[in-house]
Amino acid sequence: MRKKGIQTNDPHVQALARIVGGEKSILYKKEDLIAYDCDGFTVHRHLPKAVVFPKNTEEVAAIVKYCHEHDLPFLARGAGTGLSGGAIPLNGEVIISLVRMKRLISVDLENRRAVVEPGFVNLKLTNSISDRGYYYAPDPSSQYCCTIGGNVAENAGGAHCLKYGVTTNHILGLEVVLPNGEIIEIGENGIPDPPGYDLLGLLTGSEGTLGIVTKITVRILKNPEAKQTVLAYFDRVEDASQAVSDIIAAGMVPAALEMMDQTAIEGVEAAAFPVGHPKDIEALLLIEVDGISAGIPEQIEEILRICRNRNVREVKVAQTEEERARWWANRKTGFGAMGAISPDYLVQDGVIPRSKLPEVLKNIQEISKKYGLRIANIFHAGDGNLHPLVLFDASKPGETEKALAAGSECLQACAAVGGSITGEHGVGIEKKEEMRFIFSDEEILAQTDIRDVFNPKNLLNAGKLFPTPGRCVEVKKEKKQKQLL
Amino acid sequence: MRKKGIQTNDPHVQALARIVGGEKSILYKKEDLIAYDCDGFTVHRHLPKAVVFPKNTEEVAAIVKYCHEHDLPFLARGAGTGLSGGAIPLNGEVIISLVRMKRLISVDLENRRAVVEPGFVNLKLTNSISDRGYYYAPDPSSQYCCTIGGNVAENAGGAHCLKYGVTTNHILGLEVVLPNGEIIEIGENGIPDPPGYDLLGLLTGSEGTLGIVTKITVRILKNPEAKQTVLAYFDRVEDASQAVSDIIAAGMVPAALEMMDQTAIEGVEAAAFPVGHPKDIEALLLIEVDGISAGIPEQIEEILRICRNRNVREVKVAQTEEERARWWANRKTGFGAMGAISPDYLVQDGVIPRSKLPEVLKNIQEISKKYGLRIANIFHAGDGNLHPLVLFDASKPGETEKALAAGSECLQACAAVGGSITGEHGVGIEKKEEMRFIFSDEEILAQTDIRDVFNPKNLLNAGKLFPTPGRCVEVKKEKKQKQLL
């Protein structure tokens, strides 16, 4: 095979290629870069300057140092499944792809920890340790392909986070390349709650704006001795919502407590994993309990009783592991399934106090009517984490804008009842203006001040997470600086 | 009664008195200030300039603004039960005591939240909601008098944090007065994992160096349906340690899993709540499981089986709630009980990987021999959070210094096996130099940079949490600043 070498005169590309060991670890031609112009949020597209594929922390640090010294914008990317545009190269960034850093470095069963590289795929961790009776809890629906590095950046959640918590609850240590190329370790030995400021928590969910994670120590859990799964069909969405409240009020903490509405059911039944859900029900609940065997039957009985009290049409318990797996495949591929009933769809992600569920679902129906766009709901009902899916057709002029406006109004409806604009998908570029729904100027300033400490040149993933500062923020910043003189 | 007015010409004291509404809300005479010269860490003592008692957030903000404008050092104080000196006025601070801000503002059972002022006593929250079937999980041993504001500052733990997590896992929202007097709300509606940087996590456990918390939204939990408690006596400490490992390895997560060694047992049996523990055993375990009733007996059986496998001398299950309460009173007053067998004692607080328990306990015995000081161990064995209690007599010349050195060596022993220098008591002034055991200069600098963002004049609780910067840190800081020019 003929060695072609780097076919560009761009000195930055040549220098970056030297750092990562040549042409096989860098992309720089337009036809190659197109695949990196967006992530799971496809509404905005921008070409990166180049994509580099480092093999280890030292290469990441060298790339970052080079970018820092030459004022090149840069950002890190995992599998690119993020739903809020966090990995989109808005400013023609150098993309540092971490997919080649995909080793499972170590597993320590006795102390319940594993150490992985950021490009290690989420589900592979559970697959690597399940035969010894352990698993990794955070389970975003994209877990078969998303990376743990990306999960850390977005503080990813998942169906089972009701009982087990989101990614931040499972991160024990991080190795991080700071935006100037320095390498630091946080909680390096995987001891929970290390002294000093909670940098672990700060980095987790910082959406790639404070540093690049190059090694991750995660908590692993013992498989629950038993689990059982219930599927419940409701004629009225209010009854399903009430059943959710009743289950929580009974003091149970199911491992998962998911809801789908009628439009969502239409979608999943038309897609790859149909279950045979009736299409004329307003809502279904998918409920899973796990733990030691002894307590499970009593909890299932209680859940069945609650569902019947709330006028459930039909309720059943999974009879085999295969049936359970099929119900979950139907649920976990639910977002993509909307493609079966609509050319395009926009996933939203808001959080509300559980008690406001019926009210907000009604508001979302009204938003749907107002814009003339169908909105499906598939979501983590147990923790009040809504996922309205706005169905639209991007080929119709103006419909993308309408879908974005409808999605934003859904978030406003969440914020209005004391909720939040994202549960687990992050802010990225998608929702940065919506941050104003819940944060004052001072509160945004307190955060951008922190970003400036880590990322003073703002070369790392700029233009994400925070709204464009208004004049009043600038004035406050000047005033603050003056106070210090 | 004669109105005396403020009896000092100090204009700052007069101004502060005006802010808080007069002489009844300020202390400034030396005889009154002595009570505030230390907290639960009694080795260092310093007089504050004054102690003010604000009644609300606005008064706190006005005091802070005044201090900020007049360059007066200041710090916040709750009940003063902290064990690492976080509330000691090293620099003659104005102490802002939050004990009058002690309201339970609201309870929202449906969404499992309560809002409290920072001076609200920890145990009062559980007492206020237990008749409705709820409780607040973090239970430091001082919970009958420590305040939730102080718990937030120190990220306090407790015996039941093995299953339920430490304070940071239960904080949903904070109102904070920043060091310049601005008021911000973080996660104001109690939605978990709000977007943007995790300021909730950053503030929680920041030991009063980033801001003053004036309102706290906490998660409340439903009382477990049932709980049972086991007391197990072991002839050999290695067997007790192994039983701890076996219980965790069996996939159980007890609500609490506590250990006491022989010296500790001698202390608690000589103090206020003796249980009748045999004095010739090397260790006891106090184990509690909770949850739905159905699973409890099986878990207890499994625990008894494990203890017997590990040569337990005697093991018993609490037969009545009264017996259980007595066992816990014996454990929770354990630190103070050391006063019954030693004139003085120093509590240490380290964390180790659970698998290193036997090794580190042995090292602590050697440290005890080396210094000729007895060291008792009462601790959260389930999560590897050790509490060596160094017994000494401060009236003997040089013995305080020896005790401090022995305590520091215990921490070094924890760090040496990949552990940490504090589990739940904080760094304060006690352990700031020990931070070097686990953090590099870069890692400390990353943290002090964050402090400087919030607290740029370093008037708020200065000289805590981080080691005195060495010359190399200064050089790095200069270099970093130069890079930005």
Write the layout of secondary structure elements.
The structure is a homodimer.
Chain A: H1 11-20, E1 26-27, H2 30-33, E2 50-52, H3 57-69, E3 74-77, E4 94-97, E5 104-108, E6 113-116, H4 122-129, E7 134-135, H5 148-154, H6 161-164, E8 171-177, E9 183-186, H7 199-203, E10 212-219, E11 221-222, E12 226-234, H8 237-249, E13 256-261, H9 262-270, E14 283-291, H10 296-309, E15 312-317, H11 321-332, H12 334-337, E16 344-347, E17 350-351, H13 357-371, E18 375-379, E19 385-386, E20 388-392, H14 399-416, H15 435-438, H16 441-454, H17 471-483
Parallel strand pairs in A: 2-4, 3-4
Antiparallel strand pairs in A: 1-2, 5-6, 6-10, 7-11, 8-9, 8-10, 12-14, 12-15, 13-14, 13-18, 16-20, 17-19, 18-20
Helix pairs in contact in A: 1-3, 8-10, 13-14
GO molecular function (chains A, B): (S)-2-hydroxy-acid oxidase activity; FAD binding
Keywords (chains A, B): FAD, Flavoprotein, Oxidoreductase
Pfam family, one (chains A, B): FAD_binding_4
